[in-house]
């Protein structure tokens, strides 16, 4: 590490690290962290720091020497179709500061994506050291070293024989970074649907066509819910900053800007909030209903402890 | 004899597909059109359900409209500028208009390229005949707008026939590009315009949708009046049991309700059509607009 990086890391440690990694409230024991933390800010990097802090700090999730898997829904071009790279960079920085042994990008992220952030250069030293499952690039094709076949998934209704990234079951901590946006078939794509980024194209096509009926959102929703039984993310940090409300997932579509970063451990709750962002009810989104029915999380926002902050 | 007949049919189908595939590839600009550029890979053709290999999500919508095949090609110049071209061949011209209209509803339309086009800074899309074309530019250096425009014109000129607009659209005589009228061919498309339900509660096969004067207007056509009545009854039942909608009330030849934003929705069956109006503002009165739609439909069906 050169001096410039050291200085940056040190200042980062002071500005975001020490404060964020250590939550005084924890000293008193039995602290109830919020289920969701929603931070409004035009600085998405700082908003991410603050959101994680409110959830108990990064050390609640990442211990020194642990391996981290990141799933970032980055593979889109239009504004409002991919999570702001500042959110992902802030999370990488926090994990790095927490002493992560390795950080694995579970679905390929291009350098162009990172370059969209003004913070790209000062995080170069982290990006350079990321491990990336390069073969998990659209349209991902099965290979034995990167993927594993799961013949059955406990409690799944439809899904079986899926080809999924091996590493997702191997990493100590799994962090999902979706954007909450419109999707043509599932209406909302967020934390739950982001999991499809772990599967091969062959598997994902069965979500769309496997029922034998074309354009079957009910079947797609159930498959997505089933997939979330494989491994629940330890932490979800979602972009509700600026997102498309139509013509998803690729856009271009009408944009809505809320400047919100949403963090939590429950992907159903995150998506339930995402439904609200799209002016819908969680009930409207079949994926949320199916995931709730499988016990993956809570879709009733009134039952959740939600922390809302403006920075 | 039977085997020989089967083989002959198979060969005819195969030949048809090969010819069609060659046709779509002929629409791609050649390297002589792009001096100094090279193709980064051979053009790829995706047919039918293989579209999922090209589009990461969203392929369902193309399939709903009647997708046949797409050819995609990437070009790069020494300065690492990139151009991507996708030429979608739909089953017919109305389907091409439909997919253009639904996917480009957020962008202004003009007649600059093909029959109608949508142009953004690094992006041109247009439809002509049964083709829906997208050209996009990604660059580390600069955007060469004249080059992208030249390529768009080149492709448009290679498509000899203009193709026809959907009959439903022609019937309502709404061909002003300033008024973006979307042609829907199923519930996914409807959900992309205004979301009612993930289930096909209107049994929608063809419809027009547009936004004007503070309300969304959706006109669904059915083969006959009994189907329209069936869709009216089915949709009323679904909406009544959907917590997103409230105040479901009988109205003249239909019903009204409110959505979760408190916006009024008015649905009326007129001959073999359903007219669905959604107010986007609480101050809007939908009745005069519904009467206007009713009159237009009755003029078309000859009931007046």
Short account of what is shown:
The complex is a heterodimer of chains A (about 300) and B (about 300). Helix content of chain A is about 30%, strand content about 20%.
Description:
The complex is a heterodimer of chains A (about 300) and B (about 300). Chain A is of the alpha/beta class and about 300 residues long. Chain A has helices spanning about 5-20, 45-55, 85-95, 110-115, 125, 165-170, 190-195, 200-210, 215-225, 265-275, 285-295, and strands at about 35-40, 65-70, 100-105, 130, 145-150, 160-165, 175, 180-185, 185-190, 235-245, 255-265, 305-310. The longest helix of chain A is centred in the N-terminal third of the chain and has 19 residues, at about 5-20. Chain B is of the alpha+beta class. Chain B has two domains: about 1-160, PknH-like extracellular domain (Protein Transport Mog1p, Chain A, 3-Layer(aba) Sandwich), CATH 3.40.1000; about 165-300, Protein Transport Mog1p, Chain A. Chain B is about 35% helix and about 30% strand. The longest helix of chain B has 25 residues, at about 1-25. The radius of gyration of chain B is 22 Å and the shape is elongated. Chain B starts with a helix and ends with a helix. Residues about 10-20 of chain B have low confidence and may be disordered.
Throw out a few tags for this protein.
heterodimer; A: 311 residues; alpha/beta; 8-stranded mixed β-sheet; two-stranded antiparallel ribbon; 11 helices; 32% helix; globular; disordered N terminus; B: 304 residues; alpha+beta; Protein Transport Mog1p, Chain A; 2 domains; 8-stranded antiparallel β-sheet; 7-stranded antiparallel β-sheet; 29% strand
